[in-house]
């Protein structure tokens, strides 16, 4: 697993042992960022200069990819100890400590935000209906900016992560399905 593009292109990322963390595959991240940058509703402004939230961060691959591609800042949420160790190692090895913060807390019970985020990645464990719970908690704590892009990875056969959202894009990649919508 590595950073695909940007200033840290090619940087190898560490992942914890075992199956508790399921990092987003390089090809899926490439497809996602291609979509963000080239879709009619997307563009460079979706990533560059934006504050990003990487919830259920695991290795931090999504947030680090965004930082490598010009995001202004990323807040990572993770609670699993081995994943936290890998995440902190990856942030350090990518030299992104000055533009990121690792929250060793649940995205389901976030602290109050100081800056709302314009791009939110949620890659929770599959099959537990966690995206809707996380969005409710993040919205209440002020983490999501009006009009923010929300990107969620679910299992391929799971329904849309939130009801009533106008889905901008939906793509299946292997066992995963990516969903993108704009927060109202």
Automatic annotation (TrEMBL):
One of its GO terms (molecular function) is 16S rRNA (guanine(966)-N(2))-methyltransferase activity. The keyword Methyltransferase applies. The keyword Transferase applies. Keywords: Methyltransferase, Transferase. InterPro entries: RNA_MeTrfase_RsmD, SAM-dependent_MTases_sf. SUPFAM superfamilies: S-adenosyl-L-methionine-dependent methyltransferases. Its EC number is 2.1.1.171. It comes from the Bacteria. Gene3D superfamilies: Vaccinia Virus protein VP39. PANTHER family: METHYLTRANSFERASE. This is 16S rRNA (Guanine(966)-N(2))-methyltransferase RsmD. It comes from Acetobacter sicerae.
């Amino acid at each position: 697993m590595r950073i695909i593009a940007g200033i840290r292109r090619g940087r190898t990322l560490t992942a914890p042992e075992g199956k508790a963390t399921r990092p987003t595959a390089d090809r899926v991240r490439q497809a996602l960022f291609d979509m963000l940058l080239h879709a009619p509703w997307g563009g460079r402004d979706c990533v560059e200069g934006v504050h990003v939230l990487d919830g259920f961060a695991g290795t931090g691959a999504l947030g680090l990819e965004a930082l490598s591609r010009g995001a202004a800042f990323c807040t990572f949420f993770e609670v699993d100890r081995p994943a936290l160790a890998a995440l902190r190692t990856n942030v350090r090895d990518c030299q992104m400590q000055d533009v990121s913060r690792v929250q060793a807390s649940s995205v389901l019970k976030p602290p109050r935000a100081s800056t709302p985020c314009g791009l939110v990645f949620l890659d929770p464990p599959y099959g537990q209906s966690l995206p809707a719970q996380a969005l409710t908690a993040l919205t209440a704590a002020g983490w999501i900016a009006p009009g923010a892009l929300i990107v969620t990875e679910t299992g391929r056969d799971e329904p849309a992560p939130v009801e009533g959202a106008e889905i901008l894009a939906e793509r299946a990649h292997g066992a995963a399905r990516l969903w993108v919508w704009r927060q109202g």
